[in-house]
Amino acid sequence: MQFTVQQIAEALGAECQGDAGLTIIRAAEPGDAGPTDLAMAMAPKYAEALSNGDARAAVLWEGADWQALGLSAAVFVPRPRMAMAGITAMLDRGQGIEPGIHPSAVVDPTAQIAANVSIGPLTVVGARAQIGAGALIGAHCVIGLDVILGESAVLREMVSIGARARIGDRFIAQPGARIGGDGFSFVTPEVSGVENVRKTMGDQGDAKAQTWLRIHSLGAVEIGDDVEVGANCTIDNGTIRNTCIGNGTKLDNLVHVGHNTRVGQDCLLCGQTGVSGSVEIGNNVVLGGQTGVVDNIFIGNGVISGGGTKILSNVPAGRVIMGYPGIKMESHTDIYKAQRRLPRMARDVEALKKAVFKQPPSD
Known catalytic residue: 259? Predict the structure, then answer.
């Protein structure tokens, strides 16, 4: 896979100068770039490394003197990170999934496989599953009964999709993602200590030890278009209604979405975030790494949580929160600053106590 500098610039809608016919094979760091590499030097801080390397072409910041940097060609971008999206998409060499259906794959005869689908070794496709055109399915994947998988999906190795899941177009699942496991839902014959604690915020009452009984998951999982699910993510089936992930939402590695939860459109759930059951998450929500969300609450549109936040109650739209429990970020910052001052305040108080207690008795 190779492109000219001109082709890359046109794909980005960017300006290029110099020898636009240079052939580019891969992208590289400025100091490591060779003659057929495109050096990613999109800020002045990369200028020295670029001058010391062997790159002939680079992506540069606007206004850069490409000739002074010893280049033969340059592409100028106003928004570097956006340019990264386009360049990496063009130069991605993929995972080498061979065209067609591997002889070791097990595909149920009632499954519907559209045109140009690739299915890797030892993958299993269940009865009445529907695989959209252009899908790439890696090795050791499992696609369950009555699953609908949209066009141009990419399933990396060892992805499993449980029965009756409905997934839109251009879905991406990284290795080991698990879609459609049963929800973590159990009940005791009589009121349990956990139920009492939820009501009293601390008292288990007179609840006795009991055996947990399983509540089965009759719902499934619905996933919209352009969704990406990271490695070892888990999305549980709903109990009665489906668990839903909206269009354009991205889940990082090791994210868990509990049963019945509904995640809106264009959300980002970062690594190790855990969302309990029956949570309503709006659109354009960003949950930082290791955010935890309790069950049966809502998070409004546009909410952002900082890493490690524990969300224990409803969050109104547009709020930026942090901490445990999650509160307004500015309030959390003030509290943190005050906590750091506590040792000094304690020393000051001790000094004041000593000064007061040493005062001579008044006449």
Answer: yes
pTM recorded for the entire structure: 0.89
Two tokens, residue 191? 């009121």
327, β-bridge pairs: 322
Residues composing the chain: 363
Amino acid at 174: Q
Measure the CA–CA gap between 173 and 234, rounded to whole angstroms. 11
Q: Which of 86, 43, 81, 38 has its CA nearest to residue 64? A: 43
Question: What is the DSSP-derived secondary structure letter of residue 99?
Answer: S
Contact criterion met (CB below 8 Å) for 39 and 29: yes
With a CB cutoff of 8 Å and minimum separation 6, the contacts of 175 are 138, 156, 157, 158, 159, 231, 232
Q: What are the pLDDT digits (tens) for 9-66?
A: 999 999 999 999 999 999 999 989 999 999 999 999 998 888 888 999 999 999 999 9
The answer to whether 284 and 267 have CB atoms below 8 angstroms apart is yes
Helix 80-91 / helix 5-12 crossing angle, nearest 10 deg: 120
Rounded CA Rg of the chain = 28
Identity of residue 149:
L
Q: Give the CB-side neighbour count of residue 279, counting CA atoms within 13 A.
A: 26
Residue of 216, 256, 259, 332 marked active site = 259
The span from the CA of 334 to the CA of 11, in Å, is: 46
Half-sphere exposure of 336 (CA within 13 A, CB side): 10
- Which contiguous run of DSSP H or E holds residue 230? none
DSSP at 101? B
Most confident of the following: 22-31, 201-210, 293-302: 293-302
